[in-house]
Amino acid sequence: MRTYASVQRTMWPVLLLLALLIVPANADDQAAPRRIQEEIWALPLPLPMFAYLVRPVGDGPFPLVIMNHGVSLNPTERSFFPLVEFRDAAKWFARQGYLVVAPVGTGYGASAIDIPERGIYGPFFSKVGKCTNPNFRDAGLAVAQADLWIIEYMVAEKRVLPDGVIVVGQSAGGWASIALSSLNPPQVKGIITFAAGRGGRVDGKPNNNCAPDKLVETTGEFGRTSRVPMLWIYIENDTFFGPALSKQMHQAFVAAGGKAEYRLMPPFGNEGHYFIGSPDAIPLWSPLVTKFLNAPK
Question: Are 100 and 68 in contact (CB under 8 A)?
Answer without folding.
Answer: no
